[in-house]
TrEMBL record:
<feature type="region of interest" description="Disordered">
    <location>
        <begin position="1"/>
        <end position="31"/>
    </location>
</feature>
<dbReference type="InterPro" id="IPR036102">
    <property type="entry name" value="OsmC/Ohrsf"/>
</dbReference>
<protein>
    <submittedName>
        <fullName>Osmotically inducible protein C</fullName>
    </submittedName>
</protein>
<dbReference type="InterPro" id="IPR015946">
    <property type="entry name" value="KH_dom-like_a/b"/>
</dbReference>
<dbReference type="Pfam" id="PF02566">
    <property type="entry name" value="OsmC"/>
</dbReference>
<dbReference type="InterPro" id="IPR003718">
    <property type="entry name" value="OsmC/Ohr_fam"/>
</dbReference>
């Protein structure tokens, strides 16, 4: 159940399914992320990219951004995401919390196609912390 996707930019992404103990021939080998995990990780990357770019364009001294996503899925097929929380940790020199909050909002309201798309089925909430380095 392992798959390799080749992206439009020419990169490859490995995906795999979970092992199925009841019928091992039908399961994956747990060698790579599940496709839905890759979707969620891509969304985190999309919005973190936006946040950093927005802050840099605002001439803020941003040094890093990480985002931890926690999600819930529907109990029945299709098991779409129903709730997603994104917690951002943004590091930099004298970053105003208001600027970080605004960058996160702009990403979710205008720029991040992935989170805007997932927002059609999931309630997306955000939180953040700013670390001065």
């Amino acid at each position: 159940m392992g798959f390799i996707a080749e992206t439009g930019s020419g990169h490859v992404l490995a995906m795999d399914g979970a092992p199925d103990e009841r019928t091992p021939a039908n399961g994956g080998k747990n060698l790579a992320p599940r496709p839905m995990e890759a979707l969620l990780a891509g969304t985190g990357g999309c919005t973190a990219y936006d946040v950093v770019l927005i802050l840099k364009r605002g001439r803020h001294d941003v040094r890093g951004c990480s985002v931890k996503l926690q999600a819930e899925r529907a109990e029945v097929e299709p098991k779409v995401f129903t709730k997603i929380n994104m917690h951002f940790t943004v590091t930099g020199k004298a970053l105003p919390a208001a600027a970080v909050e605004r960058a996160i909002a702009m990403s979710h309201e205008k720029y991040c196609s992935a989170s805007i798309m997932l927002g059609k089925t999931a309630e997306i909430t955000t939180s953040f912390e700013v670390l001065d380095v």
